[in-house]
Amino acid sequence: MTPVELSRTVLRAVRRAVEDGELSVVVPEKVSVTVPGVGGWGDYATNIALQLARPAGETPRRVAELLLPHLAGAHGVSGVEITGPGFLNISLGSTASTSLVAEILRRGPRYGFVDDLTVGDDTPNASTARLVRLHAPREPRALVVMDVVARLLRSQGVDIRTTCETGPPEPAWVTVLGVDPYCAPQEPTPLDLEVEDLEVEVVRPVPVPAPDLAPLLTLGRDAARWALLHPAAHDRPRVTADHLVQREANPLFRVRYAYARTRAVGRNAADLGFTAEPGDVRDTQDAQGDVQEVTTPLVREITPLLADHPRVLARAATHRAPDLLARHLVAVADATLVLLPAVLPLGDEKPLAAHRARLALAEAAGAVLAGGLSLLGIDAPEHL
């Protein structure tokens, strides 16, 4: 069951409770399904009970108690628990990642784009797509951030127009940073005046200090863009050669290395004669044929991060914050690097269904990393 399917399942539970006379509320159009918070339980969590409590005239915990039996009996749900003031935490059991992985592999790097229905309060819907005009001062960080914000908004079904202050960008900003050389100069009147809901937004992150401009350009496109995008817009970018160092302390290296490793295990698996197939990743057999669960903690770490990717893209677009995506990719990469050693058979071990499922999970993680890096305008190398 994917997050989208689970969101629909929660809505059906609310609808049944209303039809049975247990709740007197208007059934919402959508439900937010997210990764459980710190100390949370299960694969996903929803705050629907808190959302409905006031209109229902009940406490959030009472609403959660009414919804619980409708959720617990749903297909694909293996357990439901109420936590905190009324959060519903949901476990999907051993098949939690199967549909999710299949969906990611089907969508590839476009997983999380709005041509698929996505989940979350921040997710724009194609039916409410609008035109947004972004404007940036003639400053390299502003132009790079505007470029990525535009990509994020387009991924969420928003039509974008970009303008910048009079005068083209410096040639080095174009060749090294990849900013738009044809950014339209600011006009005295808004574009497309016939569009009533046109928004004009100025993208103005903390600029690169003048002494750092030359060192920034020596980093090259990938490291320079990461240096500008990884910090929040209100933080000063750190322009140092550390962004070029290929070691674990460098988050950009970890993200790109994790992607390259997902490609490498795919090549190695092909050499061993097996391919990816979404399924139960947890179980394997030892030499005596006994089933052992060897990867449950690893899967528990990475699956919610992959499931949360559409919501992260939506939030990054809504809040004009590429740093949210950059930090998410670091978390996905770290979880991927922990998973990868368990993907291939060891020694004389024969490839099993679990190995094919783990390979599918690794390839899904690679698709998320590649898609996220592409939105940031950063290369995802297959060999590193």
TrEMBL record:
It catalyses: tRNA(Arg) + L-arginine + ATP = L-arginyl-tRNA(Arg) + AMP + diphosphate. The keyword Cell inner membrane does not apply. Residues 255-384 form the DALR anticodon binding domain. Coiled coil: none annotated. It comes from the Bacteria. Its EC number is 6.1.1.19. Pfam families: Arg_tRNA_synt_N (PF03485), DALR_1 (PF05746). This is arginine--tRNA ligase. It comes from Streptomyces hokutonensis. The gene is nrtL.
